[in-house]
Amino acid sequence: MKRVTVGICGLGTVGAGTLALLQRNAADIADRAGCQIEIGRLGVRGDRPDVETGTIPVSRDVMAVADDPEIDILVELIGGTDTALALVRRALANGKHVVTANKALIAEFGNELFHSAAEAGVSLSYEAAVAGGIPVIKALREGLSANRIQWLAGIINGTGNFILTEMRDRGRDFAEVLAEAQALGYAEADPTFDVEGIDAAHKLVILAAIAFGMPLQFDKVYTEGITGIETVDVGYAEQLGYRIKHLGIARRTEQGIELRVHPTLIPAKRLLANVNGVKNAVLVEGDAVGPTLYYGAGAGAEPTASAVVADVIDLARNLARGQGSAVPMLGVQPEAIESRPILPMEDVRTAWYLRMTAEDKPGVLSDVASICSRAGVSIEALIQKEPAEGQTRVPVIILTNRTREGELNRVAREIEALDSIEGQITRIRVEALDG
Ligand SMILES: NC(=O)c1ccc[n+]([C@@H]2O[C@H](COP(=O)([O-])OP(=O)(O)OC[C@H]3O[C@@H](n4cnc5c(N)ncnc54)[C@H](OP(=O)(O)O)[C@@H]3O)[C@@H](O)[C@H]2O)c1
Known about the structure:
By secondary structure, the chain is an alpha/beta fold. It is about 35% helix and about 25% strand.
């Protein structure tokens, strides 16, 4: 049986999971790949006495893996865009296939790296970079390749989803749940990438590039985190029949592509609204197939290793047959990848959840309603609470119809300028996800 040799760089959570999975399922993997997959070298920085490496050669300098002539496939599991970028560039230049789980690397440097891979006649595979173990890249690139993708929406950051789920289920506030997520190892010590939506934006850019056949454009994604979500809003959303989820949304419109990550109210009855805890899910609407949903573990050692090893097997099959991959790296032939205009947020149309604090006196609601109506914004639902004992101000919650964002911003400013409205309006976008 032919032999394909893999080098693994980075022996952290995913690296150790990948090594363990390749070893444990070696016989099944060989049957599927049509060749023996051998681990030829590991590139590690520090000691990992808890990881069984046996007789596999270990290098302290990861570049030694990229330069090792025995290695056919380099697996980059270091993370970040410093050493990882230099390593992947070197491996591709040396004619090695590369598998990575690194969404930041693909989202920010993918255009260059895919080009380099194509020039070198090798592949750069990245299934694990989006939604961990869920094979959504394969689904988009291959299973849905007959469709014109209209839009996709995903819960693609487990930490953020864990926080929002806990806020809803237990009425806990953001800071408290974040601290627990860190203690449980879901959130990084610096959770900015998760809670500010940067990690989700990295993944969304990759999904959108495949779905719409366009270059990766990380700097064009509108990104809003969940740090401003308050427990009261989670509760009011529930009363209105909605859940708040941190979604990455990419949509094709006649004016351009929408690329946005933000907290979103979605109807509680949608499957996506019931994706809880650290789980991920991506909903894709294709013109032929309609909606399809991909659900599962978006992170963790072996779920992520599952996607990494699947990429290794794909490459090993090709190597065993002496052929390159027939599937283009972004799902579209490189010469057919086309830049498309990205729709500015002020032209994006969504419905809105608005929460304001109003004086409890006659006429306030009619002032708010007439500002909305003059702007053509219709009020679909409204909650007005009785004032608490001794209070003269009340929360007012409004759900609007779909409105251009620029117009909604103008309406919100006009309402905020009313003497009877205190402070700023809390605004959260609403998506029906039904077409
Ligand atoms: N964890 C997940 O669930 C998950 C899911 C999907 C995708 N990913 C992606 O997978 C990649 C790895 O994530 P991870 O969670 O496994 O990270 P991790 O646990 O922090 O592991 C990273 C490993 O890389 C090593 N490393 C860092 N810089 C290095 C260098 N210059 N030379 C050699 N080794 C170096 C680290 O060594 P030290 O121990 O010495 O620092 C560590 O062992 C990232 O791109 C991440 O975004 C992770």
